[in-house]
Amino acid sequence: MGTNVKQQNNLIPMLIIAGLFFIFGFVTWINGALIPFMRTINELTEAQSYFVASASYISFVVMALPASYILNKIGYRKGMSLGLFIMAIGALVFIPAAEARTYWVFLTGIFIQGTGMTILQTAVNPYITILGPIESGAKRIAIMGIANKTAGAIGAFIFGAILLSGIDAVKAQVATATETEKALLLDTMADSVVTPYVIMAVVLVVLGILIRKAPLPHVEPTEDETTHVGDSANKTIFQFPHLWLGVIALFVYVGAEVIAGDTIIAYGISIGFTGEEAKYFTTYTLMAMVATYALGVFLIPTYLKQKTALIASAVLGIVFSVLIISTTGIVSILFVAALGIANALVWPAIWPLTLDGLGKHTKTASALLIMSISGGAVIPPLYGRIVDSNKQKLITSGINETEALANASTESYWILIPCYAIILFFAIWGHKLKFSPKK
Questions:
Q1: How far is the C-alpha of 46 from the C-alpha of 255, rounded, in Å?
Q2: What's the average model confidence in pLDDT over 142-160?
Q3: What's the pLDDT score for residue 204?
Q4: Cα separation, 82 vs 212, whole angstroms
Q5: Largest Cα–Cα distance in the chain?
Q6: Please, are residues 359 and 232 in contact by the beta-carbon 8 Å criterion?
Q7: I want to staple 345 with a disulfide (CB 3.0 to 4.6 A). Which of 86, 286, 309, 391 is the partner?
Q8: What kind and span of H or E run contains 100?
Q9: Domains of the chain, each with CATH number or no CATH
Q10: How confident is residue 222, by pLDDT bands cut at 50, 70 and 90?
Q11: At what angle do helices 179-190 and 167-176 cross, to 10 degrees?
Q12: How far apart are CA 142 and CA 83, in angstroms?
């Protein structure tokens, strides 16, 4: 009876948190459309274009610990509201960025939005993890993931349609235009971001006001739910090796997830698909994740342990990465999208496996896990740099530029294999290293 009442009491907070996951899922996954859009209007290289992802994800390194401090001072509800307001400010920065068509101003707006998302993520991930039993933490986060990736699919679809419609025609015209004509074409294309970002800012402000009145209960990790050994309170954060391995695993996972979602449109264009065809590719990746999240909600923990789900995800990631490199055309694209299946249950499984047993250190550990989201700032640009390097080598060997870019983009997905290998290590061995020996 008590359990049913608790679950019933948790329903409204879970719906509210799911709404927040929806919001930052929408904002995060429009990067897949922004990358080729920015590459065109600012005439960037592959590596430079992926700094769109870096600007968003680097904020998690810079702001995670300050966000944790802010939340300790003002609480979850006010912190979530503040995060939404900051995201709205970031959206408004896109107006002067579009007017000036200046890349660093766009990146500033994206970074400010990332700062707001950092505060939200620092609040909602530990909150939903400890809102119920730790052994079903992955199930609750999987439910949040459905909201997050559904929003991402919607955002990628909408912004892909707005930003990438006519991109092929613009690029063709730019190739033969005078400097004055080119500037006019690119300025007109840049202005297409203004209206959707103004609407986004208004929605974020309204939600920021509403969340202040939301019925969110105060929750804290308790000793019997989060620790297996009574002396956890006497240990420092550095005496939990499984935490640090979890941070590393989450770092490479976010990098791999961002590559799967944010490179697929640019990859499709590089191997010969038109912008009109490629603009929906990120949605394929995200819908694969949504379907797998739904499966996780059903299976975890009754039929599938969190550890087993993580092992299966890592193995699938390695297999799909090899298949991307080994195939061509639409088949290769579909294997990039299939990474959504491999990625879906990694985040939900890593959080509870890492936070299990930390007791009073849970908040600090959560901030460290949030900081590891910076993998999305490091690994995608590294992929872009590898593409540029491989492309130049192929051109030097006598291959034309179009074919060189296609081959280089495909081959460079090898960077995913070591990422999934690290996740596999954490799933099998790393999460078991709970405590260092007592002195």
A1: 16
A2: 88
A3: 94
A4: 9
A5: 75
A6: yes
A7: 309
A8: helix 94-100
A9: 2-432 (1.20.1250.20)
A10: low
A11: 160
A12: 22
| Structure confidence at residue 5 (pLDDT) | 37
- Angstrom distances, CA of residue 268 to CA of 25, 140, 236, 271, 337: 22, 34, 47, 5, 11
Q: What is the DSSP letter of 41?
A: H
Give the rounded distance of the alpha carbon of 306 from its chain centre: 20
Residue type, 319: V
How far apart (Å, rounded) are the C-alpha atoms in residues 336 and 327? Answer: 11
Assigned token pair, 194: 């203004």
Rounded to whole angstroms, how far apart are CA atoms 152 and 286? 7
Dihedral angle, C-alpha 116, 66, 106, 102, nearest 10 °: 160
- Between vectors from CA 192 to CA 29 and to CA 60, what angle results, nearest 5°? 30
What six digits make up the tokens of 405?
């870019």
Rounded to an integer, what distance in angstroms lies between the CA atom of residue 191 and that of residue 196? 10
> Strand, coil or helix: what is 248?
helix
* CA distance linking residue 78 with residue 201, whole number of Å: 18
- At 328, list the tokens: 């061509």
In which band, very low, low, confident or very high, does the pLDDT at 265 lie, cut at 50, 70 and 90?
Answer: very high
| Other CB atoms within 10 Å distance of the CB of residue 319 | 15
Mean pLDDT value across the chain? 87
Please tell me the distance from the alpha carbon of residue 374 to that of residue 254, in angstroms, as a whole number: 8
Residue 188's CB is within 10 A of a number of other CB atoms, namely 12
Q: Is the separation of the CB atoms in 374 and 114 below 8 Å?
A: no
Measure the CA–CA gap between 237 and 224, rounded to whole angstroms: 19
Q: Are 109 and 97 in contact (CB under 8 A)?
A: yes
Strands (E), 252-318: none
Q: What is the Cα 106 distance to its own chain's centre?
A: 19
**Side chain identity at 350, as an amino acid letter?**
I
Bond preceding residue 217 cis, omega within 30 of 0: no
d(CA 417, CA 413): 8
> pTM of the entire structure?
0.79
CA 328 to chain centre: 26
Give the integer Cα–Cα distance in Å for 34 and 160. Answer: 8
How many angstroms separate the CA atoms of 166 and 275, rounded?
Answer: 8
Assigned token pair, 400? 């034309």
- Closest to 108 (Cα-Cα) out of 127, 126, 95, 120: 95
- Given a contact cutoff of 8 angstroms between Cβ atoms, the answer to whether 420 and 311 are in contact is no
Distance separating alpha carbons of residues 363 and 355, to the nearest angstrom: 9
Res. 346: pLDDT tops 60 = yes
Task: Give which of 117, 131, 119, 121 is closest to 13, Cα–Cα.
Answer: 131
